[in-house]
Request: fold
Amino acid sequence: MQKIIFTVFVFLFTTTFSQEVTVYSSYLSGGEARYGLKHAFTEEVITSALYQSIGEFTDDGFAIAKKDDFWGVITKKGNIVVPFDYDSLIKPSEGLIPFIIHNKWGYLNFKSEVVITLLYDVAKPFKNGHAQVKNKGKWGLINKKGEQVIPFEYTWIYPPSEGLIAANKGGKAGFVNFKNEEVIPFTYSWAYPFNEKQARVDQKGKTGFINKDGEIVLPFIYEDAHDFYEGLAAFKKSDKWGVINTKGEEVIEPTFDYVNRFEDGVSIVSKNLKVGLINKKGEALIPFEFDEVKPKYGLLRVVKGKDVGMYNHKGKVILPCKYFNIFQLAGEYLLVIKNEKMGVFNRKGKEVFPLMYENIVDYGDDLINIQEDGMYTLYHLKKKKKLSETYEWISNPNNGSGLGQVERNGKYGFINKKGKLVIPLMYEDAIGFASGYCAVQVGEKWGYINEKNELVIPAIYDWAGDFYNGEAIVINNTKEYTLKLTDNGEITVK
Reply:
């Protein structure tokens, strides 16, 4: 039975890469979803909807994904760095990936090499050079060499922090050192890792703080509390949140619905179901009028209803809360969308390109691709200089070629990053360069050119795909063939 595909878009935005990425889903006629990657603004497909699941990307651009009931790791460019050979994977951390085969867990690196063998019932991501692992119902710690640091004897254990390890054993919690020697007795109902030389501990439904000698420095009088950051910790009393210093002095009274930890001298807090920003004196830097305040692109993104704006950490308005959405562009700029138009501002809120364009795409290397009146032009972002002629379409370069596909009057060619047309508008269609080759349509047939526009594979095929991992699919007379790149650069057919 033919499968019918319906496409729905789900946005996943990240801050590390200048090009925003979209995870999109396609639904088969049976209702089963498949996921792929697209560029957020151009909707240009990065990977087809082949995956059963795509996880959250790490800061360095990796995500676990599921295909044909097995797991692997992909990048934001769609490259497969760990093949789909595993029963399950967990989000990479510190260069290692927890994986499971036949109900046993171990760790891989990004070369798919088994670094720590399949020994464990459960394995957690690495943190501070150590990972929590479980065997026969008990938890312990290992290092990145797979060496057992703390034996399997705890009902729960945290990664080490400030030289000590919080753990739970027999219903009680305390701290051990790297020799598994009890440093702080197991007398608490729960214990959390040390931060700024103090640790939260719970006892009889209340929270207090101890030092590394096990001395109680702040009594068990809090309903809840956060760790100390920048010398301050949020605490909860009578169902309201305030802030204490390391002496236990209430420097900000408990009047808030919630208080996050302080970073760079400020904290995002909520009050009366609205969110704002306070300093260490409790003074409001961003008023309590927003539905959401979150760190984004080194600034603070505010949301009120359907509108979005930007503040800095001193409470200064960078962009007023009146836009449909705001994204980071080329690291140093903000792409603003309102009323289906786009513009560019710098991080101080100064207009760089007015809010009047149909589309603006990060082209890489401080270049942007601007659509106006249905036509695209390449500009230098910092110099605000027009580089290319105007085309019906300009695609981003891929696979390191530096050449972007352009279209005008039904013909395709390529420009370089200076905007110069280096491959003329002479092809009926083109896919894009990969591994130094590009599939092009000449008349009704397909072949391949190199970056010098030399037809290295004659246009004899009914259809030709791009190269991936050194192979490309071609079709002739309804039969499918595979072109393969050899190590010396030659192309064979199999």
